[in-house]
Each structure stands twice: as C-alpha cells, then as structure tokens.
Amino acid sequence: MSHPADDPLAPALPGTLPAELRAELVAFRRDLHMHPELGNQEFRTTAALKDRLERAGLRPRVLATGTGLVCDIGTVDGTPGSAAGERLALRADIDALPIPDTKTVDYASTVPGRAHACGHDVHTTVVLGAGLVLADLARQGRLPRPVRLLFQPAEEVLPGGAAEAVECGVLDGVGQILAVHCDPRVDAGRIGLRTGPITSACDRLEVTLEGPGGHTARPHLTTDMVTAAARVAVDVPALIARRVDARAGLAVTWGRLESGHACNVIPQRAALSGTVRCLDLHAWRQAPDLVHAAIDEVATLHGAKSQIDYVRGVPPVVNEVDSVQLLHDAMAARRGTASVEDTEQSLGGEDFSWYLEHVPGAMARLGVRPPGELSSLDLHRGDFDVDEHAITVGVELFTAAALL
C-alpha cells in the first residue's frame, strides 16, 4: 500500500517511530480489535494498557470508575518552559460497540455481538504509541512540556464517560487537551481540521403517549392513539425547526414508533424514541424546554397525555483556535502542509466535548481510508476497518504536538 511520504522540507523532529515499534503497535491494535469491550466493561483493555505502560517505566493509574486510566509523563516543576496548568493531555476512548463484526480478517472480533466499529482501538493505540515515544524522550531530557495520557471508558454510553472522568480529576493540572477520531472519508496519511464546532450535540428522547382506547368503529369516543403518535412524529420536528435559528441545526429524528396489536383496536398507548441533534451550543442548551413544549402541544391537541424522558447526551465538540493551530503545525512538521485538509461539521456526537467545557483543546479527523480507494466504509458498521498506516500518522501527530 502506498502512502504519502513525509515532506523532505519539513523541520526534523525527534520521536519518529522505528519499524519495531510500528509493528508492535499494529499488533496491539489487532489484539484490541479481537477483544472488544463495551463501556465501563473495558477491564482487559485497561489491564493491557497498564501492563505496557508499566513496562515502559511509567506509572499509570486506573480511574476510580474501575476501567480506563491516566498516565503522566514528565513533571510540571522543573520541566523547561512549563508551569502549573500547562500539562498537555492526549485522550483516547477505549470502548467498543454492541454490534457484530462481519469482516473476514484474521483479527476479527472473537466476542459475539461486539466490535470496534468506530476506531476506538486505533485511538487507544495512537495514544499508547505517543506515550511510549514521549516517555523515551523525557528520559533523555528532550520533552519540553509535561504530558498526560488519558484512556477514557464509555464514550459510546450517554452522557459519555468523559463527564465521569472529569469528576475523577483527570483534568487537574491540564492546560490543553487533544484527540483524534478515525475518519473513513480521509486518506491515511492525512488529517482533517476545523476551528469551532466539529461535531453535533446528541441527546436521547423517549416519549410515551396515553389515552382511552376503544373500537376502531368509534374513534370519536377514544383518543385516536395511532394518529396522535403519527402527528407527534411528523409535527414536532417541524415545530422545532421553526422555533430556533435554522443555522443552529436543531433536529429531532425518530428511530422507533410503536403502538397497537390488532387492526380493529385503538390502543391506549404509543411509544416513540429518537435523537435530538444540534450544531450550536447555545441552541442545545435550550433544546430540552423547546422539545418538551412542542410534544405537549401536539399531544394535547389530539387528546393524549405525554410522558417525556429527555436524556442529556453531549454538547458539540467546539475546537479552540490555538489548539487547532497546534495540530496543524504538528502535522505540517511531520508530513507537510499538504497532509492537512479542512473538514466539515459532523452530526455525530462525541463526549470529548465535556473536556472542552473545562480546558481548551481540539479534535482532529484521522484519515484511515486506503489511498486510492474510491469508496469508504462508514463508522458503526460491522465491516468497518482501517488502513493501519493511520496508527503511525496519529502517533507522530501527537508526538510532534507535544514537542512544538
């Protein structure tokens, strides 16, 4: 497989991956891929990370939640050019998804109904690899700022494991935080960057409608529950779209509607569930009140009582300008400016946003598509896979960011 080469004119930086470490990291990623674990159940993954970091002479600490860990490299006091609060955090999410792995590769998941179909195994391996390189540089006295490795559990579990990790103190002493997310639309050897919002807010919505049912011959004596549910499904998204600025991108989308069991019986209950996504942080904070009001209005109009379970998910990831510039400069130093491209805001949610409520930082899109491939396998698919050259690129990106 051919990949973009390093820019020969880019400034030389220490920390380039030797072939032996590249091979080890690919093997580590494949081992994680074969043994995926769901959120807050990542015990094997945590143990594997802890063991490798300890063998590198580091002192990782398992989070109080029982899975995930943090590991500091370098000290704040006495590190040239550093001061309290200037530790750089590199974050990886370590959990998998509850979907079957459908690939025919020798490193496919060995756990039925579980797969690393979002690239978290790559994120984890990238941060591990960066930690191993930076630890070696720290021993040589060549690390200009202290670094914290953060391996976070339960990213796929709303409202996201990041919020609980923050409560565990993982940001104490951190002045900036960086992350990557696999992007199958970007070629391996490249990254995508965006200043400002790069993901969407994502909340979960469960609605139950109730009312007196009856015979379909006499709907006027009942609450026509199927019609009421249908109107909620159709009218609520339209109402929401007219009550916020269209540029906020606030959207209610249903994924489930259930009601009734017989063709001649008007049911007494209906249930809907879906997601609320939003591109704008201010509008996201208004969303629960707006959604509650719209559902109540439509349900009441049709004689139904509504019960609403609005589960807060994650706000948008809003990339801070200086952190984006750091990622840009780091990638340019390794592979030249041509290896950096603009990326659009995604409607997907990412709990990295919780860290950015407390410290500045940014997330980059890490290219994982084989160069020359015209099609791409989307995230959250059982056949999702990556070009493993992306691991080297991610490690060198983070290493360069810590050295600049």
Can you tell me about this structure?
The chain is built from nine helices and 16 strands. By secondary structure, the protein is α/β, with parallel strands linked by helices. The protein has two domains: 268 residues, Aminopeptidase; 114 residues, 2-Layer Sandwich (Alpha-Beta Plaits). The strands form four sheets. An eight-stranded mixed beta sheet has the order 1-2-4-3-5-16-6-15, sandwiched between helices. Helix 1 runs antiparallel to helix 3, helix 3 crosses helix 9 and helix 5 runs antiparallel to helix 6. About 3% of the residues have low confidence.
Strand content: 15-25%
What's the arrangement of strands in the largest beta sheet?
1-2-4-3-5-16-6-15
Annotated CATH homologous superfamily of the largest domain = Zn peptidases
Rg, please?
Answer: 24 Å
Number of domains: 2
Multimeric status of the protein: single chain
Helix-strand makeup class: alpha/beta
CATH architecture of the largest domain: 3-Layer(aba) Sandwich
Strands, total number: 16
Report the mean per-residue pLDDT as an integer.
93
Largest sheet: 8 strands, mixed
Low-confidence stretches: 6-11, 78-84
User: What fold name stands as the CATH topology of the largest domain?
Assistant: Aminopeptidase
